[in-house]
Design brief:
By secondary structure, this protein is α+β, with helices and mostly antiparallel strands. The protein folds into 2 domains: 186 residues, Dbl Homology Domain, Chain A, CATH 1.20.900; 89 residues, Roll (PH-domain like), CATH 2.30.29.30. It contains 8 helices and 7 strands. A 7-stranded antiparallel beta sheet has the order 4-3-2-1-7-6-5, covered by helices on one side. β1 and β2 form a beta hairpin. α1 runs antiparallel to α6. The protein starts with a helix and ends with a strand.
Length: 304
Amino acid sequence: IQEPEEKKIALELLETEQAYVSRLHLLDQIFYTELMKEAKNGKTVPEEVVKMIFSNISSIYQFHAKFFLPELQKRMEDWSCNPRIGDVIQKLAPFLKMYGEYVKNFDKAVELITFWSEKSPPFQELIADIQKRKVCANLTLQHHMLEPVQRIPRYELLLKDYVRKLPPESPDRDDAEKALEMIFMVAKHSNAAIAEMERLQNLWAVYQRLGLEDDIVDPSNELIKEGPIQKISTRNNSTSEKYLFLFNNMLLYCVPKVIQVGAEFQVHLRIDVDGMKVRELNDTQFPHTFLLSGKQRTLELQAR
């Protein structure tokens, strides 16, 4: 007889979970443990570096190996008399928020591996040595580390499929739908963490171009728009090239630096968005011009 579709998906969930737990075991119990041991002996890299690379992989491993996998196994063994997984996944979902930290750290971790592999040959050798083992299946550490980043979207897909295939009268319907909703929220949570990380990285890059003046560097600022602009000088009817950065709270009026060492721009003026007014001008000589007035001063600018 044909197995019901929903049982096939539940089994796929179990099988991928078993494979996933062995991947986590490799990351935490082999890579992390052995790299940490050598770091403690002072032979490779600082201990801090190893901790930063692996973030909270130990908590993730413990959770899946000691809790989620055994619960799933129990469910599948009892399937004939109790065909459900929704309740187990509901217990799992809130803990998946732990992934936010791991996912947010991922790019940094890969950079650290690259940087320290060049700087410390013993570190590189140890990684290469572990990668040669059968358990690594000819894949790199970076490749294995990507697995947790991809796991939550995988749960989401499998569970969506599971809910779709459930017969309307299934005892698991309510639980499974609720579980899917919870996983969906968590997936959004880690996407939000990634978006936030990217926002901060981009913001930091902008601050570096501006020369890191202390009062400008604020992680809560949001860059809205940036671009070149012509400043009109009414005195001698000429224009000069300037550059604007518009944040949620301030407008930075900058001059491109001739010698590009360090910062790219020099901030000439900072105008608070609070109380700032913009008015279009109908100037035949200079099209696309507008008057920008703030508490600090008024500028006549021409856009491209």
